[in-house]
């Protein structure tokens, strides 16, 4: 299984980079993982709705250009479906059994995802109605993917 995470923004904090590195190492037993960072657009305070859409569209085009053809696309969105860890593992397992070899997770920037990216997604996933920093969301996503593979394999995991 090939898992790709395409995310807006760079991880600057050392502790977050170390967390990502740790979960990437753990996941290497279960899948081929690739994390792609795209640069975020400058977004000053007090943007108009039009300016917000322009920025999201610019970031969206960059995100879309990195998605492999025939990949199953899961966008992370507040408006997406909230599921349990077990349900996420079942989703991944069902995709694998169904012959899907590539899953791409999309994490938008601080303003969210463009409508074009949202439309392209095969599945919209929400971790919560709360807003999380997109840098932290990378670690949370990696942990949940790792947990999902452990559940699929019947290996112990912390409940």
TrEMBL record:
Gene3D superfamilies: 3.40.1280.10. It is found in: Cytoplasm. S-adenosyl-L-methionine binds at residues 76, 108, 127-132. Its EC number is 2.1.1.177. It comes from the Bacteria. InterPro entries: Alpha/beta_knot_MTases (IPR029028), RlmH-like (IPR003742), tRNA_m1G_MTases_N (IPR029026). The keyword Cell membrane does not apply. One of its GO terms (molecular function) is rRNA (pseudouridine-N3-)-methyltransferase activity. Transmembrane segments: none annotated. Keywords: Cytoplasm, Methyltransferase, rRNA processing, S-adenosyl-L-methionine, Transferase. GO terms for cellular component: cytoplasm. It catalyses: pseudouridine(1915) in 23S rRNA + S-adenosyl-L-methionine = N(3)-methylpseudouridine(1915) in 23S rRNA + S-adenosyl-L-homocysteine + H(+). It is an enzyme of class 2 (transferase). Homodimer. Specifically methylates the pseudouridine at position 1915 (m3Psi1915) in 23S rRNA. HAMAP family: 23SrRNA_methyltr_H. Belongs to the RNA methyltransferase RlmH family. This is Ribosomal RNA large subunit methyltransferase H.
């Amino acid at each position: 299984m090939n898992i790709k995470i395409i995310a807006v923004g760079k991880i600057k904090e050392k502790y977050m980079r170390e967390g990502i590195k740790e979960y990437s190492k753990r996941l290497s037993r279960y899948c081929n993982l690739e994390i792609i960072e795209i640069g975020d657009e400058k977004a000053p305070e007090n943007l108009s709705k039009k300016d917000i859409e322009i920025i999201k569209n610019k970031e969206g085009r960059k995100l879309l250009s990195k998605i492999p053809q025939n990949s199953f696309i899961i966008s992370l969105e507040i408006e997406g479906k909230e599921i349990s860890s077990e349900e996420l593992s079942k989703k991944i397992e069902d995709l694998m059994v169904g012959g899907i070899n590539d899953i791409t997770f999309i994490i938008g920037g601080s303003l969210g995802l463009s409508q074009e990216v949202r439309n392209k997604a095969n599945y919209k996933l929400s971790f919560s109605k709360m807003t999380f920093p997109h840098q932290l969301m990378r670690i949370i996503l990696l942990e949940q993917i790792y947990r999902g593979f452990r559940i699929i394999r019947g290996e112990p995991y912390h409940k």
